[in-house]
Each structure stands twice: as C-alpha cells, then as structure tokens.
C-alpha cells in the first residue's frame, strides 16, 4: 500500500513496520524449514553408512526413514489444534527445543531401534514446527505480499536440500554417522533463540476439544499401510504381514470416516475441503509430494548402489534437484504478483513430470551424467514452482477461523504423500532384486556383486521413476481442475 506525498509515492510507516516484522518472521520460519530439511536430506544420502554401522536389515532400514515420516504426518493436525489452544508461538518454539534434544540423543543411539525411537521424537518436534510455520508467515504478511514471503519461505527448503546432500555425504565419509544428527544441535539452538527474540504472541483460537480418537485411528491406518509396503519391499508379497496390513487399513478407512463425521471437531473435517478448488489443489499437492519426496533418496541410492560412488560423490550428484528448487521458488514468488498461483501450480506439475520422464529413460549406468543432471534440474524447478503456487493458492482460500488445524490438515495430506512416496519407492526398488539382495541395496554394496544383479536393479529404478512420473502427471491434472469458480 502506498500514499502520494508531494507528488511522490511513499510507503506508510505502519506498512513499512509490518513488512519489517514480516521479513523477520520469514527468517525464523525459514530457519525451521532449513533445520528439518537438512536433517532429512543428510540422512537420505548417508543412509547406507548408518545401515552398515548397525548391520540393519531391509525392514529396519526402511523404518529409520519411515518412523519419522509416519509420526510427523499423524501429529501435524494434532499440533495445529494444540497451537490454536495453547498459543502458536509457544508450540512453535517448543518444537525447536524438542527437535534439538532428540537430535542429540539420536547420535548416541546404541542400536537401530533406539535410533528409530529418537527419529520419532524428532518427528514430534518437526510437526510442531511445520504445523505452525506457514500459519505464522501467513499472519505476518499483507495479502498482496504473501506470494513473495511464501516464495522465500519455500525457497529455504530448497537451500536445506541443497546443503543437506553434500553435507550428509561429507559427514558420512569423514566425521562419522553420529554427526548427521549432532549437526542439528547448534542450528536448533540458534533457531530457538532467534525465534524467542523475534516472534510476537499471536491470539489463541477458540478452546475446542482435540480429536484424540481420530488422531489415533489415522496413525493406526497409516502404520498398517506402511508396514505392508515395507514388508512387500523387504521380504516379498508372500509375507503374511502384507495382507494383514492391507486388511487393517481397509477396515480402518471407513471407520475413520464414520468417527470423523460424528466428532464435534474432527481431525479430518471434510467440510473444510468440500469445494472443488481446495479439494483438487490438495490432491495436486498429494500427488506432487509422492512424485517429489523420495527423488533425492532414490537418486542417491542409484549412484551409490548402481555406479559404486561414495556418499560424498552421491551427495554432489543429486544437487541439481535442490538447485532447481532454490532457483525456481523465489522466481515463482516474484512472478506470482503478475501470474496467478493456479498457473504456477500447473506449470510446476508439468515440469516435474518432464524431469521424471527424463530420468526414467536414463537409468543405464553408461548414461552421461549431464543428461541425468538435466532431468534432476527440471524436476527440481517443477517442484519449487508448484509448491510456491499451490501453497499460495490454498492458504489464500482458507477460512480465517481455525487456520491452524486447517493448515495442519493441508500439511498432513502432503505428508501422507511423502510417507507413501518413500515407502512405495523403496518397495518397488528393493522388490526388483528380491529379498535376498535387498539388504545390499540399502547398504549400497550391490554394485560389488554380479552384473546381473545390477541389471535387475536398473529395471527397479526404471519402474520407480515410471511410477513417480505417472503420479506427477496425475498431479498436473488435479492442478488444472483446481481453478476457483467465479461468483
């Protein structure tokens, strides 16, 4: 907003003060994304080092990653509601503290299951941060400048993913796997201190009960389907846990719908997403998360397991993905003042699909790296553009009341996609070589075995990229259907 003074445009003092505070808030929330993004992307590259240290089998290897994603996903809406009740600033800062303590303890893990438990504790802290960061930044920025703030906010996730793979590979090769977690401790203390200094108290939402039963059922349903996916990949479809997990999910899904319809304040409130625009935009976000989330993990495994490079070299190899996101997100945020978020979301989805299609055709170990790099870069640009456009589109359309729980639901939908992406990709990949050689994939030692095993793995990578490509195209269709109706 501007006023004319003496024939010149000037920014009103209150507007300038609000923008100054908004950018400080953006720096705090961006630190949160960096902390969580670095923690995830370092482990994605360094996973083989951790697996070899603990001599983890494929099932345990899966759950080093999936435990965090599962707990984080199931608790996002819960902490969105808790923040509405107890105060968004307080819950947000507590998330920093909990994530930092859990990172310290994870580096002290005596065995793989203690590490899994600490990953779950990290996930609770991350849920407190993620469920509130987008709401805090939406409240701080004026509506006409929100796309700029959101572009920088989403762009910092790209910075985290840019730093994380290289950092994870370097740590794994030099300092030891423990420092993959301990590097979060000083970063967490800095974020906690800066957040406590910067963030103002926000008005609390209405005191409404937490849907504990709904949260428990969602957690149980996701656990069941993830167990089934994990078992299918590590021990094959013949494992009895696969049909049991699927059966439990099939039983719980309609039960969740029934319970949520009767709950006074449900964790999954269909009324908040009844319109076509919000429904399709969130389905597009779900598809993009499936197509995007496991990409760095899969590519890092490709270079280590198929081409036999070390963790540091693999970390460098995946950099085109976060570089693309880091460049595209702020550009999309700036362009968003002239181009609709709807158009950005569609364009980003199509770019993601194009990048994955390129990767699907270039899994041969003899393929020149620059061709693979182009595919990775285009996929990264697509994700950065989509996330900026889609997030702006959805947040601008949400009702002001209960913004925390609705945003938590939005993030939960995205995180369900992330959980399924990792579980599905690892299952397709490990299933291509069979249960006997599956452990060699996670430990990144398969390239030391026979050429036949490597050929089987290449087929697995083609199938994995093919699945992600199909999901990305579906996301583009959902984004196209998310146009708001003109009244």
UniProtKB/TrEMBL annotation:
One of its GO terms (molecular function) is transmembrane transporter activity. Keywords: Membrane, Transmembrane, Transmembrane helix, Transport. It is a multi-pass membrane protein. The chain crosses the membrane at residues 21-43, 63-79, 91-114, 120-138, 150-171, 177-197, 209-229, 241-259, 280-305, 311-335, 342-363, 369-388, 409-430, 464-482. One of its GO terms (cellular component) is plasma membrane. Pfam families: MFS_1 (PF07690). Residues 25-487 form the Major facilitator superfamily (MFS) profile domain. It is found in: Cell membrane. This is MFS transporter. It comes from Nonomuraea cavernae. The lineage of its organism: Bacteria, Bacillati, Actinomycetota, Actinomycetes, Streptosporangiales.
């Amino acid at each position: 907003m501007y006023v004319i003074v003496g024939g010149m445009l000037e920014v009103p003092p209150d507007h300038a003060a609000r923008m100054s505070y908004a950018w400080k808030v953006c720096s705090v929330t961006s630190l949160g994304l960096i902390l969580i993004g670095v923690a995830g992307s370092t482990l994605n590259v360094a996973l083989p080092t951790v697996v070899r240290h603990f001599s983890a089998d494929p099932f345990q290897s899966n759950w080093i990653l999936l435990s965090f994603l599962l707990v984080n996903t199931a608790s996002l809406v819960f902490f969105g509601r808790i923040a509405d009740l107890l105060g968004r600033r307080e819950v947000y800062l507590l998330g920093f503290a909990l994530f930092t303590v859990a990172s310290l303890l994870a580096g002290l893990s005596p065995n793989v299951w203690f590490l899994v438990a600490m990953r779950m504790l990290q996930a609770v802290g991350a849920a407190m941060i993620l469920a509130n960061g987008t709401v805090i930044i939406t409240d701080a920025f004026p509506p006409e400048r929100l796309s700029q703030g959101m572009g920088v906010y989403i762009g910092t996730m790209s910075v985290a993913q840019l730093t994380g793979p290289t950092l994870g590979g370097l740590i794994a090769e030099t300092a030891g796997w423990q420092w993959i977690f301990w590097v979060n401790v000083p970063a967490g203390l800095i974020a906690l201190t800066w957040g406590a200094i910067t963030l103002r108290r926000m008005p609390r939402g209405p005191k409404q009960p937490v849907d504990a039963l709904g949260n428990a059922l969602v957690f149980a349903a996701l656990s069941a389907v993830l167990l089934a996916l994990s078992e299918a990949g590590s021990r094959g479809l013949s494992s009895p846990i696969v049909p049991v997990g699927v059966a439990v999910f099939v039983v719980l899904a309609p039960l969740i719908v029934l319970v949520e319809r009767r709950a006074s304040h449900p964790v999954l409130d269909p009324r908040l997403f009844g319109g076509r625009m919000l429904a399709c935009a969130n389905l597009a976000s779900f598809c993009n998360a499936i197509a995007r989330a496991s990409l760095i993990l899969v590519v890092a495994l490709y270079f280590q397991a198929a081409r036999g490079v070390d963790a540091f070299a693999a970390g460098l190899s995946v950099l085109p993905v976060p570089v693309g996101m880091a460049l595209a997100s702020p550009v999309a945020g700036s362009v968003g003042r002239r181009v609709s978020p709807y158009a950005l979301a569609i364009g980003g989805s199509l770019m993601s699909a194009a990048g994955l299609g390129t990767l699907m055709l270039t899994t041969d170990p003899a393929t020149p790296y620059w061709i693979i790099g182009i595919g990775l870069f285009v996929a990264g640009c697509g994700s950065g553009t989509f996330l900026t456009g889609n997030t702006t589109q959805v947040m601008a359309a949400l009702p002001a009341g209960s913004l925390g729980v609705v945003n938590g639901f939005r993030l939960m939908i995205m995180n369900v996609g992330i959980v399924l992406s990792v579980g599905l990709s690892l299952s397709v990949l490990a299933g291509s070589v069979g249960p006997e050689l599956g452990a060699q994939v996670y430990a990144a030692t398969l390239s030391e075995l026979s050429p036949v095993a490597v050929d089987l793995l290449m087929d697995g990578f083609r199938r994995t990229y093919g699945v992600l490509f199909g999901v990305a195209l579906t996301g583009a269709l959902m984004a196209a259907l998310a146009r708001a109706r003109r009244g």
